[in-house]
From TrEMBL:
Keyword Hydrolase belongs to the record: yes
Domain Alpha-L-fucosidase C-terminal: 402-481
Source species taxonomy: Bacteria, Pseudomonadati, Bacteroidota, Chitinophagia, Chitinophagales
Family (UniProt): Belongs to the glycosyl hydrolase 29 family.
Keyword ATP-binding attached: no
Every Glycoside hydrolase family 29 N-terminal domain range: 21-387
Function recorded in the entry: Alpha-L-fucosidase is responsible for hydrolyzing the alpha-1,6-linked fucose joined to the reducing-end N-acetylglucosamine of the carbohydrate moieties of glycoproteins.
Enzyme Commission code: 3.2.1.51
Keywords for this protein: Glycosidase, Hydrolase, Signal
Organism, as annotated: Chitinophaga filiformis
Protein name: alpha-L-fucosidase
Signal peptide range: 1-20
UniProt xrefs under InterPro entries: FUC_metazoa-typ, Fucosidase_C, GH, Glyco_hydro_29, Glyco_hydro_29_N, Glyco_hydro_b
Pfam families: Alpha_L_fucos (PF01120), Fucosidase_C (PF16757)
């Protein structure tokens, strides 16, 4: 089989990191050594397509999650009404916890829609930076199950558990998003001092006991998630400015200037990732840990946000992107066309990545109708073309014009032709840089007709019969090139 595969391509595409201004894609990657984690990462790379869910008390206002209480980036997180004093606004924002009552919450509907779309895993926001907890935590009263929450007596109050159970029931893998910073915790934003930015607002070297309390709080919350939610396969940690730093130096694990923070007064916000990871994996063996944008041993894969790298990367990666425009619920949010989403998926998978597509439930617990129709349309395409997506890796050249390439471990290669809106599949599909083995069988997924092909001086020409052209193709068409045994 190895010889058959080599007939398709003399070598894999040379990996390079481009468009790496965010999340340090060009920074050195430190491979995992735990064999159970390496096995899980390999499985995760087969899943390809997942759902990210941002949901919290902020959804009642239809605003950006958490950031409006942070005293920076005022241009895009403007408080309403404009000019309201900061502490008055925070008081109103935190009071959202007393009115958040998602009575129409039905995670089974989300899970069925995700499965129908061909998604293989979910990452749910258990806690964003504002500190509002979406599970029945014992570490704070600030959450969906807290004593002031109108949802506290609902049998579904342990929301994260309900979500994970619903998705696990549908056969999807589950991951927990967790914010390392917590702007509600007195051990992170101590009320004695005003917050100045997204960082801890006191000197951790002067008040080490307070910082230790925050570390213990974080540890216990993550331990709750690892011990009460069933099987969790990904711990997706956000808030990369909370990290270990060597003061006065810029080391490899420090964030780059274009990422997250450019301020010169960074503190050593060390929460003991080694200890957290050891504990988490003792409860969830093989757990993938994603310490986002912190380039070190606990960043098992990287997460370019709202962007797709120009070329394949030399390590596991996942583009996280919104299905609409906003991460969190906005009443009249505009959704991306299905054609765009599928083209993104094909582009990402051809480059060896995964696609994590975000939805934002509303204050009542329901998704926009368009979220469901979008996922249903994606699912219709995946039913026909999923074999060209799942369990694949990149192959040189990953893209030539409107054709993207993926490969299976068995040597099969797929050439996926990207259709513009309203475009018909052309009579000839040609591409350079890849030639099937002599005697290879060529088929179009979703068609039974015989497909002929011939090698050209630099690549391949595939002839599409009129009967195949006339089919109601949408978004993209996958052409399988499978070698015959010698």
């Amino acid at each position: 089989m190895r010889k058959l595969f080599l007939l398709f391509s003399s070598a894999l595409l040379a990996f390079s990191a481009a468009s790496a201004q965010d999340h340090g894609l060009e920074q050195p990657y430190i491979p995992e050594t735990d064999q159970a984690v390496l096995q899980k990462l390999d499985q995760w790379q087969d899943w390809k397509f997942g759902m990210l869910i941002h949901w919290g008390a902020y959804s009642q206002w239809g605003i950006v999650e958490s950031w409006s209480i942070c005293p920076e980036d005022e241009g895009w997180t403007q408080r309403q009404p404009y000019g309201i004093p900061y502490y008055d606004y925070v008081k109103k924002y935190e009071a959202l916890s007393t009115t958040f009552n998602p009575t129409k919450f039905d995670p089974s509907k989300w899970a069925k829609a995700a499965k129908g779309a061909g998604m293989e895993y979910v990452v749910f926001t258990t806690k964003h930076h504002d500190g509002f907890c979406m599970w029945d935590t014992k570490q704070t009263d600030y959450g969906i199950a807290g004593s002031k929450s109108p949802f506290r007596n609902d049998p579904r109050k342990n929301v994260a558990k309900e979500v994970f159970t619903a998705f696990q029931k549908e056969g999807l893998h589950t991951g927990a998003y967790f914010s390392k910073p917590d702007w509600h915790s007195e051990y992170y934003w101590w009320p004695y001092f005003p917050p100045k930015d997204r960082h801890v607002n006191y000197d951790v070297t002067r008040y080490p006991d307070r910082w230790k309390n925050f570390k213990d709080y974080t540890y216990k919350q993550i331990e709750e998630l690892m011990t009460t939610m069933g099987k969790i396969e990904i711990l997706w940690l956000d808030g990369g400015w909370v990290r270990a730093r060597k003061q006065g130096t810029k080391k490899e694990n420090d964030i780059t200037a274009a990422e997250i923070d450019t301020r010169p007064t960074k503190q050593n916000e060390d929460i003991d990732m080694a200890g957290i990871t050891k504990m988490a994996r003792s409860h969830q063996p093989g757990l993938i840990v994603v310490d986002r944008s912190v380039h070190g041993p606990f960043e098992n894969y990287r997460t370019p946000e709202q962007q797709i790298p120009e070329k394949p990367l030399s390590y596991p990666w996942e583009t996280c992107m919104t299905m609409a425009n906003s991460w969190s619920y906005v009443p009249d949010d505009k959704y991306k066309p299905v054609n765009k989403i599928i083209h993104n998926l094909v582009d990402i998978v051809a480059k060896g990545g995964n696609y994590l597509l975000n939805v934002g439930p509303g204050p009542d617990g329901q998704l926009h109708d368009e979220a469901y129709t979008t996922m249903a349309a994606i699912g219709e395409w995946m039913k026909i073309n999923g074999d060209a997506i799942y369990g694949t890796r990149s192959i040189a050249p990953y893209k030539d014009g409107k054709v993207c390439f993926t490969r299976k471990r068995n040597g099969n290669v797929y050439a996926i032709y990207l259709l513009d809106e309203g475009e018909k599949l052309p009579a000839l599909v040609t591409f350079e840089g890849l030639k099937p083995a002599k005697g290879a069988k060529v088929t179009v997924l979703g068609a039974k007709e015989k497909i002929s092909w011939k090698a050209t001086a630099t690549g391949t020409q595939i002839t599409i019969p009129a009967a195949v052209q006339q089919k109601a193709w949408q978004h993209a068409v996958a052409i399988q090139l499978s070698a015959v045994a010698s």
